[in-house]
Design a protein that fits this description.
288 residues; alpha/beta; Rossmann fold; six-stranded parallel beta sheet; three-stranded antiparallel beta sheet; 17% strand; binds zinc ion
């Protein structure tokens, strides 16, 4: 790989047939169904937290404590060390905002605009699909959104807006340096309305509402030619992969699975072992 994450030409050549096939599916489709996991955001410069090395490189204080991403971004850790959990979440939020959605997001948006309709189903909370202009009412955020807060208890099912600019943290210790937000209903600690690991207390009402709207949309696309494309969704949290295998089967199409290290699937999966941005650029060239 080169420094800019562009594979050598031979790597693209090895996938040329699959890329042509995928581009054909996308070209002929009336409808675009997009699924995204953490691998989609890596090309924007957002660190890949699932690898311990990548996580510790970004968060040296976590290495000192010997904790990985799944520990710190978990429900139990939030209760054990809320100042650190809040510090970590605030740091993630800043990272997402410092980076721009990569060109692949814009390519997907152009493809979506050329179709009758489209839907995005993502496990990412970076809101990059929103930032390039995908309609919020046609996005399912399966892990929730950090735009809203909820009670840690929780004393009720309410969620509310948060002003992140009032919060600050110390990057050396990863600790929040301002008082953490509190629940306006019971005054207990508040937390982002995002699904964490081992999280029994997440209020998923907003996600369920999005899923219900998506079901109605999916039913309305029956009989149409639907391109089903999944990008950077791994096997550790496999929800996106399972769902997209189901969708591809339901619409009688091949699943376009773009995944650098885990492109495998059933006989109807068109697996492409390349980074998301590289694949999207290559298919876009073929579609021009
Ligand atoms: Zn409360």
């Amino acid at each position: 790989m080169n420094d800019d994450n562009t594979p050598q030409p031979w790597a693209l050549d090895a996938h040329r047939e699959s890329l042509i096939w995928a581009a054909n599916i996308i070209e002929k489709a009336d409808v675009l169904l997009i699924g995204a996991g953490a691998g989609m955001s890596v090309d924007s410069g957002v660190p890949y937290f699932r690898s311990k090395r990548g996580f510790w490189k970004t968060y040296p204080p976590a290495e000192k404590l010997g904790v990985n991403y799944a520990d710190i971004a978990s429900g139990p850790w939030f209760h054990q060390d809320p100042a650190m959990s809040w510090g970590f979440i605030l740091h993630c939020k800043r990272l997402f905002e410092q980076h721009e959605p990569h060109e692949g997001y814009h390519i997907l948006k152009r493809w979506a605009d050329s179709k009758e309709t489209s839907w995005v189903y993502t496990s990412n909370v970076d809101r990059y699909f929103h930032r390039v202009g995908f309609q919020p009412e046609r996005i399912t955020e399966i892990h929730g959104s950090d735009l809203r807060l909820q009670c840690t208890v929780p004393c009720c099912r309410e969620t509310w807006d948060v002003d992140w600019s009032t919060l600050d943290m110390d990057e050396d210790t990863l600790q929040l340096t301002t008082p953490p937000p509190r629940c306006p209903y019971c005054n207990e600690l508040a937390r982002p309305n995002v699904l964490m690991f081992c999280d029994q207390r997440w209020i998923g009402d907003a996600t369920r509402e999005q899923e219900n709207r998506m079901t109605t949309w999916l039913n309305a696309q029956r009989g149409k030619s639907v391109a089903v494309i999944e990008l950077g969704a791994g096997t550790i949290v496999p929800n996106v992969r399972f769902q997209f295998e189901r969708y591809a089967r339901a619409y009688g199409t091949r699943l376009i699975r773009i995944n650098l290290s885990e492109p495998q699937g059933n006989e109807d999966t068109l697996g492409i072992a390349l980074p998301a941005l590289t694949s999207l650029r290559a298919m876009n060239q073929l579609l021009l």
